[in-house]
Task: structure prediction
Amino acid sequence: MKKLTQLRRHLLIAGASLLALGGLAGTAAADTKIPLRISTPAVPDDWHAKMWTVFKDSLDKSSPNQFDTQINLNAALFKQGTEPAAMARGNLELSAISAFDIAKMVPEFSIFTAGYVVRDPQHQQKVFNGPIGNELFKTVSEKMDVTILSTAYLGTRQVNLREARNVKTPADLKGVKLRMPGTKEWLFLGEAIGATATPLAFGEVYMGLKTGTIDGQDNPLPTVRAAKFYEVTKQLVLTNHLVDGIFIAISNKTWNALNATQKQNLKAAALAAAQYNNENRIKEEGQIVDFFKQQGLQVTTPDVDAFRKSVQDTYAKSEYAKVWPTGLLERINNTR
Ligand code: KDO
Result:
């Protein structure tokens, strides 16, 4: 009887040790996965939020058990605009950064923050997937310590007002407190279209519109839908003032530590994500106006040529244009 109890105790101890070993092995496997923390202010229902799931799925398929992809939306991990610094410090692996984020560190990139330079999403892809993109992305890597993997179309920015007004030219936006993201390049764009630009983080725009601390905001129409800005505004003015892009970028600390196959798979995942975003966003932009009309918004078309002329003149005379490399604007214009 005593022998039997002793045997049982031995068996129990052996079992417990095996379990512990199994647990350790499990932890070791998880620890060897390369963490890919992603941070974006995008709201879950927007295409450039959903594209990260496409990115994750693609990577899990091509490189099973190698990456631990963690998607953080709504600026839950890093505040809007602070992602590039976090990536350079090695506190964040991936994000989709704007031309405005890049222009802070690579001044010539401000050419893509200027209104009416990029013509449409196809033009955007040709510019960034060709020699211009290659040259500029090399400088981005050197100066910002991040590698751009693909270019996603954020959409064409439109003016969205809390109270309807007759807007034909930039002069008609005089005195309108238009929210822009909080950097001087963004504020300059808001002023260039004729408004009084005021900085506010994306996450605070809905409340700003609801309470009236701002008179309007600008964003692509799919974002106006996804972030529900249509609930607290009465008008969309189709200025088409910026064909906006965001760049899927990875910290060089992470990128340089990968082997060639991992790099290839990561690049493929970023291209798949951008393609998913681009196709869906372009399709939605083509049919979304009816949705806003059904929601009771006025959708009006201003004199876009007057906006284009005024905005292009404003940029041409600005400090920004002084640092644009000679011939770059022509090269962009001539990209077809
Ligand atoms: C915005 O704050 O208006 C903006 O559209 C700027 C973009 O660069 C990007 O940060 C975007 O917000 C967020 O991803 C939310 O859609």
User: Anything to note?
Assistant: Strands lie at 34-39, 67-72, 94-98, 146-161, 177-180, 196-199, 216-220, 235-251, 298-300. Confidence is low (pLDDT under 50) at residues 1-5, 11-28. DSSP finds 15 helices and nine strands in the chain. The chain has one domain: 33-333.
